[in-house]
């Protein structure tokens, strides 16, 4: 009998019979998937496609698809399906972002972003690091902060002549000098050189790693741990061989640097020292 059909009996009032409506979906409630959050596929967002295990950053989002780039520069295109991705281990549905760009609220170092801020005129003070890789890593994570503060980072190609370099720089209250040293542990050559710098307007700090490569977390690079290289071997070449990478330290560094997206990819022993140097160099005169 159709909904709302009427039945009439002799001498009785009409009776309205209503049929209960059922949803076309007969799946029991306890078997239905729980709703998951929708996340805009903004460039730079790092997600994983669980079906293939491919993990990468969003570089493009078009109608119905999203393109990801992994740490090795490989691109994969995936459909924007419900519950199709993992974000920090949680299932999410990626959606096409709105036309209005969403500005990041934090810089790569974790500082509050200042949209539209212009770079400050460079200070007289400087931060010196040992090599080009150190400088590129500092720029990758702290570049936005350094430009706003007007701090220039330069590299020395080693610190054997550090006391003379500091003396030539002639640091002062309005021109402080910060120096980041690799492998700064007690009893080493590096520690003896650092102790020879005595200016109150120069600060020498360091991390315990043989090279700044080790300051990048192994998990971010996709390796279980940084290998131990026997004494007498070139450390970077030994790392490449132990990991089965080609003997091309330049290409290896680009691979490592490409895996760094924010401060979360670096070890605390480096993070704290760079923050300390920035605070020192920008302290009021």
From TrEMBL:
User: Matching Pfam families, A to Z?
Assistant: DUF3097_C, DUF3097_N
User: What is the species of this protein?
Assistant: Streptomyces umbrinus
**Which domain of life does the protein's organism represent?**
Bacteria
Q: Where is the DUF3097 domain?
A: 38-97, 126-282
What is the protein's given name?
DUF3097 domain-containing protein
Entry-linked InterPro entries: DUF3097_C, DUF3097_N
């Amino acid at each position: 009998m159709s909904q709302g059909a009427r039945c009439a009996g002799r001498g009785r009032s009409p009776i309205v019979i209503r049929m209960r409506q059922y949803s076309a979906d007969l799946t029991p409630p306890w078997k239905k998937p729980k709703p998951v959050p929708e996340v805009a596929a903004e460039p730079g967002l790092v997600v994983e496609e669980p079906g293939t295990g491919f993990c990468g950053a969003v570089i493009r989002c078009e109608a119905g698809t999203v393109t990801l780039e992994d740490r090795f520069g490989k691109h994969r295109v995936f459909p924007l399906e419900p519950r199709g991705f993992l974000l920090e281990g949680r299932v999410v549905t990626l959606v096409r972002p709105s036309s209005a760009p969403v500005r990041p609220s934090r810089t790569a170092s974790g500082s509050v972003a200042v949209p539209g801020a212009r770079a400050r005129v460079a200070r007289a003070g400087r931060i010196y690091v040992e090599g080009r890789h150190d400088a590129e890593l500092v720029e990758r994570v702290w570049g936005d902060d350094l430009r706003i503060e007007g701090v220039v980072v330069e590299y020395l190609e080693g610190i054997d002549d550090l006391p003379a370099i500091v003396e030539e720089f002639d640091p002062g209250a309005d021109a402080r000098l910060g120096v980041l040293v690799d492998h700064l542990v007690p009893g080493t050559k590096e520690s003896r050189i650092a102790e020879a710098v005595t200016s109150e307007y120069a600060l020498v700090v360091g991390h315990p790693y043989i090279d700044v490569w080790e300051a990048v977390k192994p998990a971010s690079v996709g390796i279980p741990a940084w290998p131990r290289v026997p004494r007498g071997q070139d450390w970077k070449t030994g790392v490449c061989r132990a990991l089965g990478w080609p003997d091309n330290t330049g290409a290896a560094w680009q691979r490592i640097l490409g895996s760094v997206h924010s401060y979360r990819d670096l070890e605390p022993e480096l993070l704290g020292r760079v923050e300390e140097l920035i605070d020192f160099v920008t302290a009021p005169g």
